[in-house]
């Protein structure tokens, strides 16, 4: 594992449902407060910043989020207009959000505010994906499920069984990892973060993947943050698929163990045991690894780790290969280009739900999601002008004016 990977740790998030026996009026206040807080987290806004752009006092925002004050329609509309968010965002029941687990990897140094934004973004992506799966009656294939104590041999077997479940030959090269997952009814989506101006923002949280599930029988979601390296993208998706197989029924294991298991699963899923032993045995060179990378779509560093994990090389040989890569300046940018894969399932479900040429603005209004996030989940679909939702309001000039005041 590289030094950058060593800085990553895992976060497991549990979210509980609103208690069913609370009075309806009180629950509506709590729901509105939860949605307002979620919107602030999505856009990285403090209560004071939201006050400045929406004209709603910080004390009112705080009271609504705590459940002490009731938000009027005018207040919510002001927030919606100021942030470019459909009013329908506030009509979403938080009970629809994942109540089991959300998992992602990040750099240990990532600020808490960024972590909250990733959590909120992933939950909203899951909510929308699950709703589309239900409304379009998308077929989902069951995945193998790990239970109890497992070892490396068990993970190798589970990876092979996952290939079986997804209709992939055990000894075959995975030509398209994302489409393989999508054929099983698992949405795979790229994620972006939306800033306070309602625009896309790149945040340095490391090369991260996200997996989310609500329960064993409920839909799954895999998400990734954009990268131009297809080998990293493929490994990230396989890693998150590993979480979906290995961890829904094994919630008591440590985050460190979960990451190690998912890492092993990804290697086994992308290049199975027998094929790895055939191609990685002996005194292979970096040139051999470059050829294997081209064939299997897996990075040279991941191939080194696969060989080490299977006991085909020792730690001395592993270190030597990494030193050679460093000498060639290949640790951060390897030779051989593996092009990124493009997801298709979300767009297909959008087409089923909203027609052959879906307007993302209409979809954003219907699904209660910021249009920029909607576009992130369905790459390649344009924001049709004139559809419901209006234009996204740019707030940068307004915020600069506040800073000068």
Textual characterization of the structure:
The chain is α+β, with helices and mostly antiparallel strands and 405 residues long. The protein contains 18 helices and seven strands. The strands form two sheets. A five-stranded mixed sheet has the order 1-2-6-7-3, sandwiched between helices. Helix 2 crosses helix 6, helix 7 packs across helix 10 and helix 13 runs antiparallel to helix 14. The N and C termini lie far apart (49 Å).
Please report the distance between the alpha carbons of the first and last residues.
Answer: 49 Å
What class, by secondary structure content? alpha+beta
**What is the makeup of the main sheet?**
5 strands, mixed
Element string (H = helix, E = strand): HEHHHHEHHHEEEEEHHHHHHHHHH
Identify the overall geometry.
Answer: elongated
Tell how many strands the DSSP assignment holds. Answer: 7
Q: What is the number of helices?
A: 18
Average pLDDT works out at: 83
Relative helix content: 40-55%
Radius of gyration: 23 Å
């Amino acid at each position: 594992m590289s030094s950058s990977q060593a800085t990553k740790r895992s976060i497991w998030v549990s979210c509980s449902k609103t208690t069913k026996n609370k009075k309806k009026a009180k629950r509506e206040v709590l729901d509105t407060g939860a949605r307002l807080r979620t919107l602030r987290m999505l856009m990285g806004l403090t209560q004071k910043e939201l006050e400045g752009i929406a004209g709603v006092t910080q004390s009112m925002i705080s009271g609504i989020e705590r459940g002490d004050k009731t938000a009027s329609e005018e207040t919510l509309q002001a927030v919606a207009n100021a942030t470019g968010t459909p009013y329908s965002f506030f009509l979403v029941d938080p009970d629809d959000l994942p109540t089991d687990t959300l998992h992602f990897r990040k750099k240990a140094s990532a600020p808490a505010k960024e972590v909250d934004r990733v959590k909120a973004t992933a939950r909203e992506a899951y909510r929308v994906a699950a709703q589309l799966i239900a409304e379009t009656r998308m077929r989902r294939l069951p995945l193998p499920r790990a239970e109890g104590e497992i070892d490396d041999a068990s993970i190798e077997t589970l990876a092979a069984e996952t290939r079986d479940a997804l209709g992939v030959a055990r000894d075959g090269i995975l030509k398209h990892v994302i489409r393989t997952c999508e054929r099983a009814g698992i949405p795979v989506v790229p994620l972006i973060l939306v800033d306070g101006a309602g625009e896309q923002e790149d945040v340095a949280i490391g090369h991260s993947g996200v997996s989310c599930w609500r329960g064993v029988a409920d839909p799954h979601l895999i998400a990734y943050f954009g990268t131009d390296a297809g080998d990293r993208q493929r490994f990230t998706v396989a890693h998150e698929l590993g979480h979906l197989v290995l961890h829904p029924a094994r919630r008591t294991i440590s985050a460190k163990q979960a990451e190690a298991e998912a890492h092993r699963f990804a290697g086994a899923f992308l290049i199975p045991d027998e094929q790895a032993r055939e191609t990685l045995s002996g005194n292979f060179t970096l040139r051999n690894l470059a050829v294997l990378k081209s064939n299997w779509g897996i990075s040279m560093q991941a191939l080194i780790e696969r060989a080490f994990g299977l006991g085909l090389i020792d730690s001395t040989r592993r270190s030597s290969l990494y030193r050679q890569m460093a000498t060639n300046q290949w640790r951060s940018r390897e030779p051989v280009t593996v092009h990124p894969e493009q997801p298709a399932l979300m767009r297909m479900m959008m087409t089923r739900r909203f027609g052959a040429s879906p307007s993302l603005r209409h979809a954003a209004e219907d699904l209660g999601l910021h249009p920029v996030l909607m576009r992130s989940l369905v790459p390649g679909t344009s924001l049709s002008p004139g559809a419901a939702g209006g234009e996204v309001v740019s707030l940068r000039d307004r915020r600069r004016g506040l800073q000068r005041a």
